[in-house]
């Protein structure tokens, strides 16, 4: 188990870092037209948006997803394809096939490797996957969706690590692995659901304190695992867009 830093201690060095939003993946554009349209609002601080057609690229090109992804790309927003690693059990050939479909059909800019493993033993195979994806797309932006702090070696294989994905009641008292202090905030992402509007400022403070440069906070919940809380806009969308990038007093 990694040594942990209590967030009441000294913060990471965040001077000059710019916080932004990472969108884990909305519902289909026909089901969430407002959500996709809002992402094209000028000056929205987006680091990346995940395109998840059908737990991956789907079986055939989807013109609605192509249009939504194209608008973001034309606006200079990085679009990532969703690849589910199933905690390291996903067949390598299937992953590569899905990656090819994303590249051929949607011209994405990288990948979110959802449910990436985090243990040391799985690192070589994950490195193999990452290397193959970079061979297919040399400038690929790779985000490993661990959801918790992985073995430190994973940081050398990805552009970003999702080191927290879960509910606010856990996040507000969470701790950060000591080794993350060796990397800048732009290397880490936190995805948190169930954040009440009255606690948004506190949540942003925790993210900055723990050194996360990319975040997605929402007041939506998973309703005991039956709903994707990240599939729609948070109720305080306008507020979080306006707050991102501001300094938070400690």
Automatic annotation (TrEMBL):
List the InterPro entries hit by this protein, alphabetically.
Spherulin4 (IPR021986)
What is this protein identified as?
Answer: Spherulation-specific family 4 protein
Q: What is the lineage of its organism?
A: Bacteria, Bacillati, Actinomycetota, Actinomycetes, Kitasatosporales
